[in-house]
Amino acid sequence: MEPVKTDSTLPAKRPTFLTVLCILSFVGIGLSIVLLLIAYLGFLAAASLADTLNAAATANGLKNAVDATADAVGVSPGTMAWVTLIQLLLNLPILAGVILMWKRKKLGYFIYAPLEIIQAVLPIIMGFGFVGGMGMTIIGLLFPVAFVVMYGLNLKHMQGTKASEKPADAKGPVPPAAQKQAAAVSTPALKGGPFYEVRLSNVSCTPVGATFKVGMTVTAKKFVIDSKTGKEKEETINDEIQIGMVKNGKEIYLKAYRFTKTVTALSLTLDQKPDKIGVDPYNKLAEKV
Prior knowledge:
Shape: elongated
Oligomer: single chain
Number of helices: 6
Helix content: 40-55%
Mean pLDDT: 77
Strand content: 15-25%
Low-confidence stretches: 1-11, 129-133, 161-190
Radius of gyration: 30 Å
Largest sheet: 4 strands, mixed
Structural class: alpha+beta
Distance between the termini: 26 Å
């Protein structure tokens, strides 16, 4: 393990809540495909039976029973088969949406949300009666709406399709070293804005049972250019600075701390041992050179 002032972006970590939602969706979509396929085949069989009974004058009793069932539901078995097939096929783009959200892409939510609701209300759209459509739709909407809302709460952890839409805990593509040098500009170019000097020292990592106690000393200084003299001067710091940690190239910790002293000792507990520790890992601060 080594302390670093990293020049690269730490990859963002998928929140546990979003991970659980996606896993539940994967399971639910799998079950939906199986059940809808069974229902589709059943409705096809019922439609075939209805056609057969229509041609069999001696089976009026059975034909009447099939007609009565269709009247109660509001549609014929053939229509029900088509509705079920559409619902079955909708699972494919819905699955694609969940996969994108698993990868923390906002596009997945905008694919998933409308199709999930459409799949639930499709019986009403296609003309089912109250027994066959409205009743099932009211029940069937509970889980889709709940998942759409819960996924919506996780949108802040997903990346947009535009460069300006970043997750709250990530900065985007790994910047080249040249961009890092551009951030650490010389003091004359920083008139009117603060610049910083931050570094880590005394980094330690001690196993404590199944966890790891990570200690470090953070040195953080804040400077401004005096508007009258044009010279730099140190100011009392009262700013938030991020501490990030990676293991095997993946981010395992990222949190902003407010520093009010030049030297601050931190002690953190993690469930895994980091390989590297960085202060201001995403280069959010303009640094003194």
